[in-house]
Amino acid sequence: MKLFIDADGCPVTDIAVGIANTYQVPCTIVCDTSHEIVRPDVQTITVSKGADSADFMLVNLLSPGDVVITQDYGLAAMCLSKHAHVLHQDGFAYTQENIDGLLFFRAAAKKARRAGARMKGPSKRTQAQNDAFARALEALFREICP
């Protein structure tokens, strides 16, 4: 089992890497050239900047049972199809039961924006969100690590 982090805009990279190290789970960060991240304790794969290039690289590296951290619903759906465990940066798990609804909401919001609707952006990240993520990742590792 490995941990993969979709690191383009991921606010919990340090938390995830720390927890992965505690559980001795190998960690790979995948990002494009506009978000180069270099850390001595993880493998970093940097791909060319382009639409979804980091996402497709990450999916191609996955094996069943791996863990992925992403806020991208489309990437989450692809990872679920490869039988990975997928967590959002706020700590909720993407599942076969909730991914269709999330993708539908994303499509509806995109359609509304194209029609001129103004959508409220995300609020400032809180420590409570970081704590929820850390608890969820630790619980997942306790469940699936030997």
List keywords for this structure.
single chain; 146 residues; Rossmann fold; 5 helices; 6 strands
Description of the structure:
- The chain is of the alpha/beta class.
- It has a single domain, classed as Rossmann fold (3-Layer(aba) Sandwich), CATH 3.40.50.
- It is built from five helices and six strands, in the order βαββαβαββαα.
- Strand 5 and strand 6 form a beta hairpin.
- Helix 1 packs parallel to helix 5 and helix 3 runs antiparallel to helix 4.
- The longest helix is centred in the C-terminal third of the chain and has 18 residues.
- The radius of gyration is 15 Å and the shape is globular.
Task: Give the SSE layout.
Blueprint: E1 3-6, H1 13-22, E2 27-32, E3 43-47, H2 53-61, E4 67-69, H3 73-81, E5 85-87, E6 93-94, H4 99-114, H5 127-144
Parallel strand pairs: 1-2, 1-4, 2-3, 4-5
Antiparallel strand pairs: 5-6
